[in-house]
Amino acid sequence: MPTIPASSALDRRQPLPLADLRRRIRALERSGAPAGAVRAGAVAFGAPEIDRALPWGGLARGCLHEVAQTSAAAADDGAALGFLSALLARLLGEGGHAEAGGARGAVLWCLRVHVLYEVGDLYGPGLAALGLDPERLIAVRGRTDADVLWAMREGLGCRRLAAVVGEAHRVDLSAGRRLQLAAERSGVSAFLLRPDSASGHASAAVTRWRVRAAPSGPSAGGLQAGGLQAGIGAEAAARRGFGPGRPCWRVELVRCRGAAADEWVVEWRHETGDFKTGSFKTGSFAVVPPLSDRSAEPAATRLAR
Amino acid sequence: MRVAAANRAAAVTGGIVPGLALADARTRLPDLRVVAAAPEDDRRALAALADGCGRYTPWTALDSGGLGAALGADYGLWLDITGCAHLFGGEAALLEALLRRLAGFGFAARAAVAETPGAAWAMARYGGGTGCIVVPPGGGRAALAALPPAALRLTAAEVEGLERLGLRRIEALYDLPRGALTKRFDARLVRRLDQALGHLAEPISPRRAVAPYLARLAFAEPIGGAEAIAAASRRLLGALEGQLARAGRGARRLELSLYRVDGTVVRAEVGTSAPVREPDHLMGLLGEKLDGLDAGFGVELITLAAPVSERLAAAQLDLDGVARAQGAQGAQRAPAGQGAAGGAGAGGAGADDTAELGRLVDRLGNRFGLRNVLRFAPRQSHVPERAAVPVEALAPPAPWSWPTGKARPLRLLPRPEAIEAVAMVPDDPPMMFRWRRVLHRVAKADGPERIAAEWWRRAQAGREDAVRDYYRVEDEQGRRFWLYRDGLYRPGASPHWYLHGLFG
């Protein structure tokens, strides 16, 4: 399947055989798994380019996914965390939010206490600003990676949860495999958030993503904090241009069963709203062209537009 | 140096008694073996003994009164055996079993049962005989009559004073006018007398709180295997469930005590996030702790107590016999959920789910501590550090919602970190800054958003102008940070910059 490009041309011409092939390959790949392990379907990114590239038409539920940041440095932590939070917002948001009736489950977020001292704790208002309801997160703090993995496995046994997230450094193949099997059994999605250097070796995850920050486009309202203040020097205003725009990441699909590696620059688009009144609308990803001024970066192999 | 305690051989052959100077004692018995007193160790041993006596009654306490207490020579235990004696075939049988047991561990002990602590204390120490005395109900006054006044737990000075008056037996005090006694001695003496005779209540605090719900299981032969202990725990959970259900309560904490044949007690405790009495759930929690318990040479008795419990309404059974709700509380806690995918029973899946989440939280909490399983709740404060608070994982949702209109980071550093920043003009965001030794060039910035400390907390903040100007900045790679400049701009003073959070 790696030879089939993600571009839409082929798709449109022969939709049926391709879909059929995909289904058969999927069935072959998952033959060992209990039937209906992906019955809960998939979470669409909302960006057709990405959804088409993935064999499930989105991110499969009930599977282990890995999200890697490009380095272990705290400064690079934000991008991967942001991407994962946005994914979770979509995962929870499908079918409306808590009081709207459709949503099911909470998210179990397991991390080592160590992380709290290094880069700090998850911050509710920030998650809320990104469109993820913080009150649906249950945070668990263990001491070691083994604690985190244990908590994840426990969480994956609880169908009440929608997803389990673990921030762990060392996850060996068999531990990953156990997580994947537990996720398949219960239909709860599992996510591992870890530095890229630590995930170099083999992994049992169904998909692996590498996320790094990307310069944002022009700000388009929504997240403006104070806006440009009147009376700022003209030079400063010019240098500043616009404030930071919507969250923007360069997302690399490093590995995926049944799909080719690919890379996109995505923007997270969401409205703000109130989780309680149900006025909240789930945000969606959008693939955007990379900014022209990022010339230092090597040209992306293939950027879907 | 003085003798604090002597064994019987030394006392009989050399007349060595507590209080004797060490030099005198050595003169009397030149080959005397002397060991430095270790009152702390003694106390610890006594505490362990008290715990071991938990097999007779859950109510045990250390006795620290008495003449020789200062010298460490007179240690005692209180056991309240009200309502327990019948389990051992009566009071006398209980005492005999207790003394036999203590003798087996090498302790010389005397014991007495009486209606009041004072009378029991007196009879145990001054009652004579073999030291196994049961004072019949109403017989306290007669039993005490012939004893010396020291049996009333008096100080040496008081005893001496009474001797000088020729009062050598307690019965001599019975008919003396109270007023005169109080005037000459102290109210304490009369109080002790009244307490011994039962005219005055004497409250004593037990060493460990007595759990209101307790189940016990004694074995004819000591058991040791892990499976046997697990099976016994299961039976006890069943018994406890009955007690709790009758009272309409659920356990928040469980305490399993194994009484080992060597007289020591090992305990395991588990906590739950919500009141529970369902044996399967509790067994799942206890099961994890059982591995860590050392049964030693065997376990004679197991007790399971619920020291902390809360109201728990009875589970309502549906027509098909499936429990519908774990409790009213549980139902409100989580948002009304659709049936989880593939949940076993279609009917009543919502409540089952809530219970399932509770079980998960309990399992996690018992491994990491319930403090480490939490949720975030919004707090109505503009100060970033105070805007989110950790709450119990199953706490009801907060009545107000999260502010979503403002730019806030995904991670907030545990405390703001000082950065070196270069800004063009005072009110401008920095052009570049160095954080954790890495230089970041600012490409885009937004702000300032001025956040002032709440006026009622400013005194704590230490400064009147505790304001921060927050900027959201993006470096050339697109990484986004939350920076602030501390304090108001003052000409001449260089501003202090801090990094407070990371955006997604």
Question: Largest sheet of chain B, if any?
Answer: 6 strands, antiparallel, barrel
Beginning-to-end CA distance, first to last residue of chain A:
21 Å
Poorly predicted sequence stretches spanning 5 or more consecutive residues of chain B:
66-73, 318-349
How many domains would you count in the coordinates of chain B?
Answer: 4
Q: Please give the oligomerization state of what you see.
A: heterodimer
**Morphology call of chain A:** globular
What does this structure look like?
- The complex is a heterodimer of chains A (305) and B (504).
- Chain A has helices at 8-13, 15-29, 48-53, 77-93, 113-118, 124-130, 145-156, 173-186, 234-240; strands spanning 42-43, 59-60, 64-69, 107-112, 121-122, 137-142, 163-167, 189-195, 207-213, 248-256, 262-269, 284-287.
- Chain A is α/β, with parallel strands linked by helices and 305 residues long.
- Chain A has one domain: P-loop containing nucleotide triphosphate hydrolases (Rossmann fold, 3-Layer(aba) Sandwich), CATH 3.40.50.
- In chain A, strands 6-4-7-8-3-9-10-11-12 form a 9-stranded mixed beta sheet, sandwiched between helices. A two-stranded antiparallel ribbon of chain A has the order 1-2.
- In chain A, helix 7 runs parallel beside helix 8.
- Chain A starts with 7 loop residues before the first helix and ends in an 18-residue tail after the last strand.
- In chain B, the strands form 5 sheets. In chain B, strands 11-12-13-14-15-16 form a 6-stranded antiparallel beta barrel. Chain B has a 4-stranded antiparallel beta sheet with strand order 5-8-6-7, sandwiched between helices. Chain B has a two-stranded antiparallel sheet with strand order 1-2.
- In chain B, 30% of the residues lie in helices and 26% in strands.
- Chain B has 4 domains: 56-197, no CATH class; 213-311, DNA polymerase, Y-family, little finger domain (Dna Ligase, domain 1); 324-392, no CATH class; 411-502, no CATH class.
- The relative contact order of chain B is 0.06.
- With 504 residues, chain B is of the alpha+beta class.
- Chain B has helices spanning 8-14, 22-28, 39-52, 91-104, 117-126, 140-144, 156-164, 171-174, 178-184, 187-197, 226-247, 279-290, 328-333, 349-368, 458-461; strands spanning 60-63, 76-79, 111-113, 132-134, 213-223, 249-260, 265-276, 299-311, 373-378, 388-392, 411-423, 430-435, 438-452, 467-475, 480-486, 496-502.
- In chain B, helix 5 links the parallel strand 3 and strand 4 (132-134).
- Classes of the chains: A alpha/beta (305), B alpha+beta (504).
- Chains A and B meet through helix 4, helix 5, strand 5, helix 6 and strand 6 of A and helix 14, strand 9, strand 11, strand 13 and strand 14 of B.
